[in-house]
Amino acid sequence: MSTTSMRTHMCGExxxxxxxxxxxxxxxxxxxxxxxxxxxFVDVRDHTGVIxxxxxxxxxxxxxxxxxxxxxxxxxxxxTTNINLPTGEVELGECVVEVLRTAEPPPxxxxxxxxxxxxxxxxxxxxxxxxxxxMQRNLRVRAKVNSAIRGAxxxxxxxxxxxxMLVPSTPxxxxxxxxxxxxxxxSFYALPQSPQLFKQxxxxxxxxxxxxxxxxxRDEDLRADRQYEFxxxxxxxxxxxxxxxxxxxxxxxxxxxxxxxxETPPPIERMTWRDAMETYGVDKPxxxxxxxxxxxxxxxxxxxxxxxxxAASIKGINASGKAEEMGRNxxxxxxxxxxxxxxxxxxxxxVAADGTLDSPxxxxxxxxxxxxxxxxxxxxxxxxxxxxxxxxxxxxxVLGTLRNDLGRPPVxxxxxxxxxxxxxxxxxGVDKETGKPKPGHHPFxxxxxxxxxxxxxxxxxxxxxxxxxxxxxxELGSGSIRIHESDLQRxxxxxxxxxxxxxxxxxxxxxxxxxxxAPPHGGFAxxxxxxxxxIAGEENIREVIAFPKTQSGTDLMTGAPTPPNAKQLAExxxxxxxxxx
Length: 581
Known about the structure:
CATH 2.40.50.140, BirA Bifunctional Protein, domain 2, 8-stranded mixed beta sheet, 5-stranded antiparallel beta sheet, globular
């Protein structure tokens, strides 16, 4: 009970057990209804709920006035109870109303109707938007998640350590925000993309188990699950294997889910990156629905259909029951999307009522091939089979995308399916300028011990002791076991085309401390905004952040970003180019 000198109870706390008690509540006027000149009904709201207050005369209050009301709790008359309110059996009578602050009419209703208001209007007046029950609930869900995470990490003897917000620029992958130095004109700090380097140095420093609910900043294009600044659970532990790290993080995630839902989620599943790509076509698989990828390469090994003949990989999915709703225009749209993603094309086949396959390409497929397709997909009338024949990675990516487009439920819709994806590739793709492999995560990931002999002969097949945590198709975060030996680190740098001199220049401040005795260590970080959004039932992380930016990176409430004035630029020794015409 949040009692203060001004209130004895919160609005949403009052129940039948308080009848005949004199209480005081404070809050905002949610509504006022007049019954003649002698009776007024004033609904007062705070973050806990609403209570109806009966005033025995006219009262001059309006929507969103801030009031303090003292009255006697009494049972509502028979037939006037409100079953939709937890306080619906009672009301306050004999009320004395004190107006603490008048208010202008708000630009939108402070209730569920605001869900239909343009988001830009809500963000411009975010302080009003947050008054709504939905936003109050979301922020309190977030607080519970943070508290549970801290409790779980501390129970495992992790130590919370804050790391700097002004750091050197490091090539971690994403574009950085730069901060000019007034004391050293022409030099810049960077805002941290993550505490990655510092948390590893804490392992060198003997902290053993570190964690932090850290603010990270990346100058990347925004979307529903990404903001410039975001919060993550950041953790690192010494003398630990991959299983040790996954177990520690799993406990924190499970504690966060339990704190909000009251239910312990099932043990987090595991699969390798290769299995995720083969089965779901993506490295962040949504396990809540089927439509998994089926390998058909052997089915068409001797085919006379030119589009399939000689293809490195042939896979398909069964969009069960989708045949009728997918007309020719929609199918052409799917084909166009497949081509945009790099595929040579997309083959579709509808299963007719008699079990035959209806498609422009059906005449090019033998009877045995068609029968095998029906069997492989357990296809029945009304199903839609989609097939891609191309390189393995393109086949997986295209079908994985189409699978999500056609079958994926909203991200928050249960059941919650967590999965650890392990054994990511150490290298992905080739740098066009250098011709060298590019790191799959960062150059400090430890290679899988079984693949060390492939470094010089087949680097693209080397796996990393790297892992992601995925929930309902959203990547929550990633981590890895790190390299702590100089010779192995040099081998990775050499594979990436980074010379010893370049490594010293870029990473010297980070690598030199390792020469003083670095323990084996590994870590992980996951996005708290994303976890909270899913648990709170939101599709967009802006709904669980108090003051987010728009998708264009603007803060509509404060007007940021804003141009600096001439004095500020002069102090920093900076000149700026005029805006583009």
